[in-house]
Amino acid sequence: MNPASLPIPDPVLRSAILRSVRFNGLGIVPAIAQQHDTGEVLMMAWMNAAALEETLETARACYFSRSRNRLWRKGESSGQVQHVLDLRLDCDGDTVLLLVDQHGVACHTGRRSCFFLAPRDGVLTEIAAPEASPESLYGA
């Protein structure tokens, strides 16, 4: 079976996908971004229905920021954009997997992946160095 091609212009299909997602009591669902060609897990964020629908319509990752209580488009301030090539739901419909083409780093710390801490030799260790400084990404 061939993967879906995003964006999805068909509103009926977008609506069917949205109905298949089990958003939690806060109206959000975890979304995992994975690099499409390497399988590297890049990050986890949250999506509400509006973020998911925008992602389906534009093929650019859009998430819901719980701290800012608004949508945020990956890369809107850093330029580190995620183009979504395919989308999958888990068996319960309560987690979204985005297969993306990540341009630049995915983590706000300047690392390729947000998953850079791992137990090594009895301590939690950084296993990936930053590729860019947060200051260069966000100007702060």
TrEMBL record:
Protein keywords: Amino-acid biosynthesis, Cytoplasm, Histidine biosynthesis, Hydrolase, Magnesium, Metal-binding, Zinc
Organism of provenance: Sabulicella glaciei
Annotated residues for binding of Zn(2+): 91, 107, 114
Cofactor, free-text remark: Binds 1 Mg(2+) ion per subunit. Binds 1 zinc ion per subunit.
Family to which this protein belongs: Belongs to the PRA-CH family.
UniProt-recorded Gene Ontology molecular function terms: phosphoribosyl-AMP cyclohydrolase activity
Matching NCBIfam families: PRK00051.1
Phosphoribosyl-AMP cyclohydrolase domain boundaries: 43-116
Function: Catalyzes the hydrolysis of the adenine ring of phosphoribosyl-AMP.
Subcellular localization: Cytoplasm
Cofactor: Mg(2+); Zn(2+)
Annotated Pfam families: PRA-CH
Entry binding sites for Mg(2+): 90, 92, 94
E.C. no: 3.5.4.19
Catalytic reaction equation(s): 1-(5-phospho-beta-D-ribosyl)-5'-AMP + H2O = 1-(5-phospho-beta-D-ribosyl)-5-[(5-phospho-beta-D-ribosylamino)methylideneamino]imidazole-4-carboxamide
Keyword Magnesium: yes
Record-linked InterPro entries: PRA-CH (IPR026660), PRib_AMP_CycHydrolase_dom (IPR002496), PRib_AMP_CycHydrolase_sf (IPR038019)
Pathway: Amino-acid biosynthesis; L-histidine biosynthesis; L-histidine from 5-phospho-alpha-D-ribose 1-diphosphate: step 3/9
Name by which UniProt lists this protein: Phosphoribosyl-AMP cyclohydrolase
Subunit structure: Homodimer.
